[in-house]
Each structure stands twice: as structure tokens, then as C-alpha cells.
Amino acid sequence: MLRTSCHRAAPAALTAASLPLLLPLLPPLLLLLLLLLLPGMTQAAPCPAGTVVRAAAADDNVCVTPASRRRAAADNARAPLLWVSGPFGPKTCASGFVWRQAFAADTTCVTPALRAETLQENAGPRGDLPP
């Protein structure tokens, strides 16, 4: 009966002799690292203390209270339940609801009072809460 082992030999340790082989890889790796880190380094300062990014969409950077952020996430989650086919297409809001307008293409349906609050959040400097 032939026995085979399912264990593999441990990879060879990195030695000083292998460094010349790795040196040509360093510049492209450093460039890749910079390209990945640079966008985060050039973004605007984080929200003021007590506020967070609303994140109603990937590029929504308006600073709001944590409660407002949670509300926006809940509104996003229930959006399909409030869409009906109507004069504005398949994402027309059900009766009594309007588009939130947190950003230009926002079709999440909310009450008129919540839309007014969202527009007020958007009106602050840099979209921050009004002072």
C-alpha cells in the first residue's frame, strides 16, 4: 500500500540572497500603496464633534447627528416599500410621501417633514449642521 503525505514542506525562509530578487518589486508596491492611501489623505476633515457623515449614498458627506444617520439608513432600507409606478416612473412615492433629496438622484421616499429636515441639513456650511 502506497502512503502519501498531505503535509507540505515549509517554505524556505527569506535570506539575504533573496533580497536582490525582491528589490525590483519595491517601487511598484510603494506606488500602489500611495495610490491606495492618497485619496483618504486628501479628503475633507471629519465631521465636527457630535456629528457623523450621513452616508445616505456612497458620496453623501453631509455631517448630521447620529440619530439622523440612523434614520437615513432606515429610510434607505424601506425605500422599495414606498415606491409605486406613477407619473415619475417606477420610483414614484406612495401617497403622503415625497423624495428625500439628500443628493441629486435621491429617490428615497420620506414624509414632507423629513425632507424639510434633510434639506436643512444640506444647507449648512459644507453640509454640516447649522451653527
Question: What descriptive keywords fit this protein?
Answer:
about 130 residues, alpha+beta, about 15% strand, two-stranded antiparallel ribbon, elongated, two-stranded antiparallel sheet
Describe this structure in words.
The chain has 4 helices and 6 strands, in the order ααββαββββα. The chain has 131 residues and is of the alpha+beta class. It has a domain at 52-125. The mean pLDDT is 81.
Helical run tally: 4
Shape: elongated
Low-confidence stretches: none
End-to-end span in angstroms?
A: 81 Å
The class by helix and strand makeup works out as: alpha+beta
Query: Secondary-structure element sequence?
Result: HHEEHEEEEH
Strand residue content: 5-15%
The helix content is 25-40%
Radius of gyration equals 26 Å
Query: Quick check: average pLDDT?
Result: 81
| Major β-sheet profile | 2 strands, antiparallel
The strands making up the biggest β-sheet line up spatially as 1-2
Count the beta strands: 6
Note the topology.
Elements: H1 19-22, H2 26-42, E1 52-53, E2 63-64, H3 66-78, E3 83-86, E4 89-93, E5 98-99, E6 109-110, H4 112-123
In short, what is this structure?
This protein is of the alpha+beta class. Helix content is 35%, strand content 13%.
